[in-house]
Design goal:
339 residues; 3 helices
């Protein structure tokens, strides 16, 4: 009987002890998770989604909201950083990227106090080209031939006062948030950034080129000189030439010489061929292909006056002339350059 009691007590003790032992929190495999926040930034409705080359007054509008899924935390401060990356070619012709803002960018704006909206409430703000220029105007970089100012690089002559950004420039907005409990959120997992509904981590955009040169133009041509074997040219000829868009930035033309070939200079057909094209590469005009004789052309732009421009042209045979070209639609010419 006593042996039975001892065995029973031993069994009960073994059963009770595991449930009465002290809890070691360090051994708990399920930690107490802290509340987190994420955000959604995107282009606002109706906003441009890129900067347009040579249109310095065109900006973009961003709308932004912070999100606390469990409503257990509150954002009290938001910082927005802008990155500026520039594509260029090194001395060996290899494509490179200059990351002028590093990996983090430069602080564009900071929201505090009442500027910070509530959970899932959007705030909207604009980003101008001047904003980014003012952040980066003093940056320098070594493109391969020594350190130069980013906005004074002789290899990028298209950067001009008032129109500082060119094709190959790209931008990104990222953000960081401080919450009421003092924590600072400035990075999230890839799944949150790219897969989580209603979440993002950056907004990207770039400089794009828009070409709109199609039309029929009136020309007045003077100072014509034919190549070897040409006839006597008149002092002035007038007429029309048409550029027809074949694809974005690429135009067919009715006459590369603006009437010189059909004039008494040559009494010939207009200068043209199946390969002849006017190519607009971010306002740099390249005359592609050749005429019916295989000669190639160069246009150099001299001046602009609203819907009229003055250009000088020549070809590899020695023909040349000066042309005032006026748009029949009355719109102003963009500032074009010869290439």
């Amino acid at each position: 009987m006593n042996k039975f009691k001892i065995t029973l007590y031993t069994f009960l003790t073994a059963l009770i002890l595991p449930f009465s032992a002290c809890r070691d929190e360090a051994l708990n495999p399920v930690p107490d998770w802290e509340s987190g926040v994420h955000a959604l930034g995107q282009f606002a409705a109706g906003s441009a989604q890129n900067f347009v080359f040579a249109q310095p007054d065109q900006d973009i509008d961003i709308e932004f909201q912070w999100v606390s899924i469990d409503n257990l935390n509150t954002v009290t401060e938001i910082e927005f950083y802008v990155l500026f990356n520039e594509s260029y070619s090194d001395n060996d012709g290899n494509p490179r990227t200059a990351r002028h803002g590093g990996e983090d960018g430069k602080l564009l704006k900071k929201l505090t106090g009442s500027e910070v909206k509530g959970n899932r409430e959007f705030v909207t703000f604009s980003v101008t080209q001047a904003d980014i220029y003012n952040l980066y105007k003093d940056n320098t970089f070594n493109y391969g031939d020594g350190v130069v100012g980013v906005f004074a690089n002789p290899e990028k002559p298209d950067r001009a006062p008032g129109s500082y950004f060119v094709a190959g420039d790209a931008f990104q907005i990222r953000w960081a948030m401080r919450t009421a409990d003092g924590r600072y959120f400035d990075s999230w997992s890839d799944s949150v950034c790219s897969e989580f509904p209603g979440a993002s981590c950056v907004v990207d955009w770039a400089i794009i080129c828009v070409s709109d040169l199609a039309g029929t133009f009136d020309y007045v041509q003077t100072e014509m000189t034919p190549g070897p074997g040409g006839g006597a040219c008149p002092a002035e000829i007038t007429g029309t030439v048409t550029w027809t868009e074949e694809s974005p930035g690429k135009y067919l033309t009715t006459d590369l010489t603006f009437g010189m070939f059909p004039s008494s200079c040559w009494n010939d057909n207009p200068a043209n061929s199946a390969s002849a094209r006017i190519l607009d590469q971010c306002n740099t005009i390249i005359v592609g292909g050749a005429d019916q004789y295989g000669d190639t052309y160069t246009y150099q732009f001299v001046s602009f006056n609203g819907p009229s421009l003055t250009l000088k042209w020549n070809n590899t045979y020695g023909d040349k002339g000066t042309v005032v070209l006026t748009r029949q639609d009355g719109r102003n010419w963009p500032t074009l350059k010869g290439g």
